Amino acid sequence: MTPVNIRDNYMEVVAYDRNKLNSNVINYVRMAPFDISND
Asked: This protein's superkingdom (predicted)?
């Protein structure tokens, strides 16, 4: 395995984790107004 392949795989994993994190944040923000209105 060459360093270039290792770097490319690392970048793919980082991009995947970042997209998953963004989707979690979007889901949280989407649910937040319901939580706030329940006071």
From this structure: Bacteria
